[in-house]
């Protein structure tokens, strides 16, 4: 079996609206209800063996929830990761119109968000640039990069990037060139990889061979792996996923996660579960292994990055 682990990402646990194809199981989107649910999912995650938890300041109150959970549970063996670069601006307004988060990769934003995120120390193990892009110039910003290197040296952190969009491969390649005193700055790469979006495979494999930490997000393609009449172009894929799910007696989510396990074998795959039932279903991916021909068939369902990201950009916040 793969050495890949499953971690928990808090993107859907810390804010009332999120880009996803998901049903609104509960109409109560109060802060209190969300906090109670977040703690329930975090507790169940730990109980089921998850030790890696990923958050960001832009995940609404996610970082605050994780900090309080961490401080009240006192576990010795958890690994936390967070990011800088995006600010949550929807202020818990349900159905907020406009951008829910604003990107800023400046030194001042790094220092501002670090002052809050550092409370996660010493359990904080990875500190990342949130959605690094070529346009923002962050990978050429010597002030930001030097400050990240300072934090790395001072706190023993792994420094990472997360990537999204059609230029993921270019962004990862650029980041891999950054070094200080002959040592790579970036030790961790969090990328989007799933049945539909496989463009990063070669570069991520290369980084894995160099012992870099590879974290996969959006392995369920924001819910698009589930049969949905909105995406009739995926009907052949949906039928095949249903066949595999029936064969292995698991949900489609477990098939999609297992594909990433068996094809890429990253360090960590993040579950984006928003409740304990989805979490348990995700973890079924640990209990079986796909056959080589099944992996080959699933590899064949990749779409062009430009199509994937255009489709993602049209998903509604809900």
Q: Could you name the CATH homologous superfamily?
A: NADP-dependent oxidoreductase domain
Mean pLDDT: 92
Count of discrete structural domains: 1
Within the CATH hierarchy, at the fold level, what is the topology? TIM Barrel
Major sheet: order of its strands? 1-2-3-6-7-10-11-12
Work out the helicity level. 25-40%
CATH class: Alpha Beta
Structural class: alpha/beta
Number of strands: 12
Main sheet attributes: strand count, strand direction, barrel closure:
8 strands, parallel, barrel
SS field, number of helical segments? 11
- End-to-end Cα distance, whole Å, is 36 Å
Topology:
Layout: E1 5-9, H1 31-47, E2 52-54, H2 62-73, E3 79-84, E4 86-88, E5 101-103, H3 107-117, E6 124-129, H4 142-155, E7 158-162, H5 168-176, E8 179-180, E9 183-184, E10 186-192, H6 201-209, E11 213-217, H7 235-248, H8 252-263, E12 268-271, H9 276-283, H10 292-299, H11 305-313
Parallel strand pairs: 1-2, 1-12, 2-3, 3-6, 6-7, 7-10, 10-11, 11-12
Antiparallel strand pairs: 4-5, 8-9
Structural account:
By secondary structure, the protein is α/β, with parallel strands linked by helices. The protein has a single domain, classed as Alpha-Beta Barrel (TIM Barrel). 39% of the residues lie in helices and 16% in strands. The chain has eleven helices and twelve strands. It has an eight-stranded parallel beta barrel with strand order 1-2-3-6-7-10-11-12, surrounded by six helices. The chain has a two-stranded antiparallel sheet with strand order 4-5. Helix 7 (235-248) crosses helix 8 (252-263). The two termini are 36 Å apart.
């Amino acid at each position: 079996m793969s050495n890949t682990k499953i971690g928990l990402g808090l993107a859907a646990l810390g804010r009332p609206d999120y880009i996803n194809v998901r049903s609104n199981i509960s109409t109560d989107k109060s802060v209190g209800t969300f906090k109670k649910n977040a703690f329930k999912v975090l507790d169940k995650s730990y109980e089921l063996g998850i030790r890696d938890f990923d958050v960001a300041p832009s995940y609404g109150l996610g970082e605050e929830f994780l900090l309080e959970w961490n401080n009240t549970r006192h576990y010795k063996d958890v690994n936390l990761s967070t990011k800088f670069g995006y600010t949550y601006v929807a202020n818990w307004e349900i159905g907020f119109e406009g951008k829910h988060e604003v990107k800023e990769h400046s030194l001042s934003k790094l220092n501002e968000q670090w002052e809050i995120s550092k409370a996660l120390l010493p359990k904080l193990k990875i500190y990342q640039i949130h959605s690094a892009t070529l346009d923002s110039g962050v990978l050429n910003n010597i002030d930001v990069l030097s400050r990240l290197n300072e934090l790395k040296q001072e706190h023993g952190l792994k420094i990472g990037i997360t990537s999204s969009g059609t230029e993921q491969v270019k962004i990862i390649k650029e980041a891999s060139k950054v070094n200080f005193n002959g040592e790579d700055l970036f030790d961790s790469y969090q990328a989007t990889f799933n049945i539909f979006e496989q463009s990063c495979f070669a570069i991520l494999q290369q980084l894995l061979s160099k012992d870099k930490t590879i974290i996969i997000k959006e392995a369920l393609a924001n819910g698009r792996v589930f049969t949905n009449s909105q995406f009739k172009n995926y009907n052949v894929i949906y039928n095949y996923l249903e066949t595999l799910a029936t064969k292995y007696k698991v949900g489609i989510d477990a098939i999609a996660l297992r594909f990433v396990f068996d094809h890429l074998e990253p360090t960590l795959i993040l579950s984006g579960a928003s409740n304990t039932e989805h979490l348990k279903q995700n973890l079924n991916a640990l209990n079986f292994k796909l056959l080589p021909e099944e992996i080959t068939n699933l590899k064949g369902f990749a779409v062009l990055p430009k199509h994937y990201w255009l489709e993602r950009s049209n998903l509604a916040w809900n």
